[in-house]
Every structure is written in structure tokens, then in C-alpha cells.
User: What shape does this take?
Amino acid sequence: MSDALINGLAGAGGGIIAQLITYPLQTVNTRQQTDRDPKKDKKNLGAFQQMCQVVKQEGWERLYGGLTPSLVGTATSQGVYYYFYQIFRNRAEEAALEKKMLGHGDGSVGMISSLIVAALSGCVNVLLTNPIWLVVTRMQTHRKESKRSLSDWRLPDTTEQKMLSTFEPLAYGTSNVIQEVYNESGVLGFWKGVLPTLVMVSNPSIQFMLYETLLAKLKKEHASNGVSALEVFLLGALAKLGATVVTYPLLVVKARLQARQVKNGDKRHNYEGTWDAIIKMIRYEGLNGFYKGMGTKIVQSVLAAAVLFMVKEELVKQTRFLLTKPKPL
Assistant: This one.
């Protein structure tokens, strides 16, 4: 089994576990990002309070809206990213060794090379998985009504009306979203928000640049004992924190573009593209609009990244151990 495949599978496994743990926070954060009315009282609610509000008004299942496509997307995204990351990383290491043989450098991959490797991996990942994340965003931002209006049924019997009024609306599943997006914009509609998402590859690029740099220094300090799972957890959290603060506004723009557009005649809430969204957000919401829900995102992404890195490193370590373990005679 190649090293790239080991890292790809380990990344997918780590991503799934991290997603399961932090998904309710992710749902709340997506709703915060796509909230276009600054006058709504819910903007003052914290992440935990908003989760309680969703559970009370819509039920527990809405905190996990889109979980199935999200898990598919996470496994695919992390697997693709780590697979190509390891391939590009191996090429960068080979190039660094060749330069060392020619008398240039010390044979290690520098920060710039690490940044390029992460960026290339991110671009491949975005182009392949953007449709999945668009579906997830639609399902996370879908708000389910708890009851139907009695007038909607138009039945003469009052008792039957009351009974039917407690029924839930039709499910808003993956197939519904796919059909909705296709009806709106055709096949290209599944790549809405791809431009800010491609720019967003700077997030994992910055993250991995920080992570690899800090990890290399830590490995030198603990050359004999190795790096513990807790240290990897803390490094992953610190690297993700720095990357999230820098790139968060792009994440908000992407979520706005991928969510269902408001078709009520209010042009402030209907975006025609990336630049249109940016201009309207600046004009009607100010700079604060680009940082809606950042506190929730920091908690969610830092926790998810820390868990992902810890699980991935352990899976890689255990897989390599099992593959190199001598078979009994």
C-alpha cells in the first residue's frame, strides 16, 4: 500500500470522526453565516442557545440536516486532499533532495513549497467536491416548519383539520436538493460558490504550513520519544485557528452563494455572483456581515481539525506498524 493511499484513507477516517463530533456546531454556524437580516434577535444568541432553539422549534434532526451527504463529502474531501497532498509532498521532497545534491539548501521542504503543495491539493479537492458541499449547505440552512396552517388543508371537518395540522411537511432530502439546484441553474449550479472556495484553499494552505512547520520543530525536540497524540491535537488546533481567522470572510460569501437565494423582490438578499455578494454585503451589512458566526466557526473548526489530525496520525502510525510487522512463521 502506497504512502499516499495510507494518508488518504487515514484522512478520510479522521474527517468522518471529526464531522460526527462537531456537526451540530457546523449546522448552527452555516445558519449564522447565511442570516441576511441584521435586525433578527437571534444574532445575539450564542451557539449553544441557538442549538437549543433549533431543537425546540424544529426538532433534534435539524441539527443533523444534511449529515449523510456531509459524511460522504468529508470522506471524499479528506481522502482526495490527503492523497494528492502526499503525492505533491513526495515530489517536493524529491526536488529538495536533488537541490541538496547540487549544493542548494538542506534537503528539507521549505514553507513556500509546503504552501504550494497544500494549495494544489486544495484546488483539486474543491473542483471535485464542490457539488457535495453545496447540497450540504442547502440542507443545513433549510428550516422546517413545525406545523401547517389550518387554511392550507381546506377541509370541512374541524377535528380532521386539527389532526392533520400537526403533520410535518414533506422531507427535504438529498434528492430534493439536487432537483432544486438543477431546476434553478442546471449542471453548473452545483459549482456555485466555487470561486471563493478556490480562494479558500489558502485556509488549509496556511493551516498545513503552520502545522508542518510546528510539527517539524517539535519532532526535532523529541527525536527520541516522538510526538504524542496530545501534542498533535494542540498543533492541529493552533494551525486551524490561525487559518480560520484570516480566511473567514470568504467562507461567509461561499455559504451565501450556496444557500437558497431569496426570491421575494428584495435585491439585498439575492446574489448574482461572488462580487455581487461582496458588494451587497458591504453596502447593506457592513464589515460585520463578513464575520457572522466566527466565534462558532472557530470552536467548531479548531475542534474538528484537532480531532482530525490526532486520529489521522494515529491511523497512519498503526497502519504502517501493521504493514511492517513481521508475519509469524
Observations:
- The radius of gyration is 23 Å.
- The domain at 3-146+171-313 is CATH 1.50.40.10 (Mitochondrial carrier fold).
- The longest helix spans residues 67-101.
- The chain has one domain: 3-146+171-313.
